Amino acid sequence: LVSDVSRLLLNSHVTAIEIQDSSRNIAANLNAFSSANVAAKITSIRQSGTPTALAITAAQLLDNAKAATLDKITDSYTLNVSGVATSDMATVAANSKVAGISILDSTSQISAHLDDMRLLGVRLVSAKATDRTSLALSATQVNNEAWGLGKICGG
Q: Taking the model in full, what pTM does it have?
């Protein structure tokens, strides 16, 4: 269990740790698992119970150390990624483990990338503006992007 990791790290005789815990606990402890002294000892991570998508941030997914920790998960898993800037949308979407994407960016960037957001299809969970600027759309955009306008919420 995740709760046992800190105790095991105190034992100098422990050279390898296999973690098995809920999807929620694994996601909540991704940063701790990725620190150099912990990551060096973790050999595998498994989800217990009914696996659910791991809720992580774009910053975590795009961080090499945290991505390496995710690679230690031995069973099938998916990710719901929040805080995705439109500039990182394609990189996040290219990861086959990503099931859900929540965009967080300025209104102008959201407006400028509506076509790109449409390409995310059902993986687009939401798009939240970081400002309170009105979303400027042309009539064509309203017609073409109607499917996803309900997923956009103001800051």
A: 0.87
